[in-house]
């Protein structure tokens, strides 16, 4: 991180509302968050429990998922599967210049024996090639470590991304299978 980025991040942190503690952290007031999102070319990350998503956040992330998974990949399927607003599920959002450019969903079942599942991993096509996928997965893995440190993490990866996910400690646990016309394989980090 450069000194300019550190200074910019410090300015961003000053926009936090310090009177709203949550588990040792802070909620960012919606008006300040919107100002921060719109005025920053730096990537701003959010790790949100589904109950913390605003209506606008939910609409924006669903629109991005539809744009990439349904339209761009020419794969008509029901993306809104009922899992977005359940239990302890979380959403990782990366904003740049007021636009959602990176997203991942983390699902946690009610069973303590089931793995945490990272899915719907997306980088907007306008910023692909900038290595944001690595940052997104680092954010998602940090969230899993923070909330479920002893739990295996699983994902259904597009087969051509096996080496990318291996960088984060994932190895195949299934053979290649077809999911909506796209080759996938199950991968886990333990």
TrEMBL record:
InterPro entries cross-referenced by the UniProt entry: Acyl_CoA_acyltransferase, GNAT_dom
Pfam families: Acetyltransf_10
Domain of life: Bacteria
Domain N-acetyltransferase, chain residue ranges per copy: 48-190
Protein name: ElaA family protein
Native source organism of the sequence: Buttiauxella ferragutiae ATCC 51602
